[in-house]
Design goal:
alpha/beta, Rossmann fold, two-stranded antiparallel sheet, 9 strands, about 45% helix, about 10% strand, elongated
Length: about 300
Amino acid sequence: MIKPSSTPPASVDATLALLESQNYLAERGLATVVYLSLSMQRPLFLEGEAGVGKTEIAKVLARALGRRLIRLQCYEGLDAAAAVYEWNSAAQMIAIRVAEASGATDRDQLVHDIFAEQFLIKRPLLQALEPDTAGPPVLLIDELDRADEAFEAYLLEILSDFQVTIPELGTVRAPAPPIVIITSNRTREIHDALKRRCLYHWVDYPSAERELAIVRARVPALPGQLSGQVVAFVQALRAQDFYKSPGVAETIDWATALSALDARSLTPQVVGDTLGALLKYQDDIARVQGDKLARMVKDAVDPVA
């Protein structure tokens, strides 16, 4: 791989090359919006099915640019204490007891002292606003659709002005905007007020040609013929009516599993034994068992027949 460069790419072609240097083979539309996000210093909002490479974009940018990756994994009930900051109440209580034991009586001074920065526990969003010698970090706000709408509203100040207001300390502003990547699997709609602050891109499943290139780049030990069969089978699976179709991440996992088994060609037996690397629901697995599985394997191995 190419050594990390702290300088953002100067063009769409350079962005494609930067991503490719980390074995992320993006289509040009995605590379364009990544380039614009970096050059315009705007958050990038990525939607798409699970496993298509949305989260990986943030990881790749952090590695390629030599920046710190700060990840906020969203979930239902996420609040400011977990995402932004909270006070270390245990340490504050100890400080109060030590002050009382030493005879300190100035209440105002004590309150000032226990709400100093040394008692502040910085969570991912506040960490992303801090200066860094390597350059602004990459802030990944992952699966925002899992969080509540109230948390979205809290994000507006951060995404608009890259600042956080802490009542006891004041406003903390980033010296330079972090590189913000927000992902969503679209289990619910994200509010327009947040989307307006971002550049948007839908990350779709790759074409067969692009997915084959991805498999060959990420699992180079897999025989070339088998790589083509893997992609053909996965593309056929996505045409089925499944609860959850396999993403690119599952394709790579399956190819890696087949490589570990030293497989040379797809057979109904080897596919049946490893189908859990592709499909994560028993009902989906049941839909492709028996004769249907044998036909799909035959089509993937010998598409002309």
